[in-house]
Amino acid sequence: MHKRNYLVVVLFGLILLLTGCSQAHAANEKIHVVASVDFYGEVAQQVLGKHGTVTSVINDPNVDPHDYEPTTQIGKTVAKADIVIANGAGYDAWMTKLAKAQPDTPMITAAKVVGVKNGENEHIWYKPQAMKLMANALAKQFGKRDPQHQAAYRRNAKHYIESLKPLDQAVAQLKTLSRGQSAIVSEPVFNNALTAIGVSVADRHFAQAIEEGSDPTPADIRKNSKLLKQHQVAFVVINKQVQSKVVSNLVQQAKDNDVPILKVTETMPRKQTYLQWQLSQYRSLIKLLEK
């Protein structure tokens, strides 16, 4: 009887020991995140700090996320992720598809976090509040996965958000400078930023055609030509990563009529942070409007 009780106690103690080891191992495991593009990977790493790692599938500014086709290896990488981050709203549908193949893996999309529906402007990172909202959403998700470091994730998110204050200052300055002006855009990459500073887009139909890879109508081209000649727009926004004869003609017309041109990109340049990238474009626009 005493021997049986002794064995029960030993067995119970062994179970507790193994459980404790298992929990300690789980607590020491780092979170691994896979993001579709590098600027979402950046905010994820900033919030994770030393408690996790991030893999950004697209980190080359010359790769178009719309047309990207993931390899089998990328599929395996996503399958091993603890958390997946995507833009959503149709921008990186390939990532959404890969993530859905892993229904138990949480997926955070900027579209859901920011409140952008399919069919709306998918360039969500150009909304000044987007990365702040993403930082807080990621901190919350990381905290669920790793409660032990919940406070650290919240603290890291707060620090990241504070680091973006120069963007807020630039947006505030541009709101004053723009004074309800309008602009021509080669495609709607920068439209969310324009909306934030109070600049209206004068050629939405033209821009949409360019983004979809089709030719604008002759009426759209004539409209832009008239707007430029009569100086009815304050500036022209060009996505310098997309070249075509139509866009080149637009640029030349703007130059001929002394209408300033703002050049932007859809993907983050090499060796730049999200803040550096966005701030350089905002500051370029400030210079254009101050002339």
Automatic annotation (TrEMBL):
Keywords: Metal-binding, Signal, Transport. GO terms for cellular component: cell envelope. It comes from Lacticaseibacillus manihotivorans DSM 13343 = JCM 12514. This is ABC-type metal ion transport system, periplasmic component surface adhesin. InterPro entries: Bact_metal-bind_prot9, ZnuA-like. PANTHER family: HIGH-AFFINITY ZINC UPTAKE SYSTEM PROTEIN ZNUA-RELATED (PTHR42953), METAL-BINDING PROTEIN HI_0362-RELATED (PTHR42953:SF1). It is found in: Cell envelope. GO terms for biological process: metal ion transport. Residues 1-26 form the signal peptide. SUPFAM superfamilies: Helical backbone' metal receptor. One of its GO terms (molecular function) is metal ion binding. Its main location: other. Gene3D superfamilies: Nitrogenase molybdenum iron protein domain (3.40.50.1980).
